[in-house]
Write a structure and sequence with these properties.
The protein is mainly beta and about 100 residues long. About 0% of the residues lie in helices and about 45% in strands. The chain has a 4-stranded antiparallel sheet, with no helix packed on it. Strands 1-2-5 form a 3-stranded antiparallel sheet, with no helix packed on it.
Length: about 100
């Protein structure tokens, strides 16, 4: 079996994360799909110190659609939110993290 060199491996083009976070209400940030395509099987995982991990299943999020995330259970300054989703374009899973 011959070794694979980096030039032999297909790499997708750069992809701008479609999310925008509106933090006007720190305990209820609004997550907006600011991209131009729907994203599928979206999950939001909130890691709240001292409270544990909470997962919300959002399903498909359309362009310009927003979802409000409730972070009332912990100190907002310590919460890390991870969004995971699939693109229809390539079927790959993407992950993006932010601090609330």
């Amino acid at each position: 079996m011959a070794p694979h060199f980096p030039s032999d491996v297909w790499l997708p083009a750069a992809y701008r994360v479609p999310w925008r976070v509106d933090r006007n209400d720190r305990t209820h940030p609004r997550i907006v799909n600011a991209g131009d395509e729907p994203v599928d099987f979206v999950r939001a995982v909130s890691d709240i110190p001292g409270k544990g991990v909470s997962t919300e299943l959002w399903g498909r999020v359309l362009p310009a659609e927003h979802v409000e995330l409730c972070l009332c259970d912990g100190g907002v300054e310590d919460v890390v939110v991870t969004l995971a989703w699939f693109r229809q374009h390539d079927g790959l899973e993407y992950v993006w993290r932010f601090v609330a």
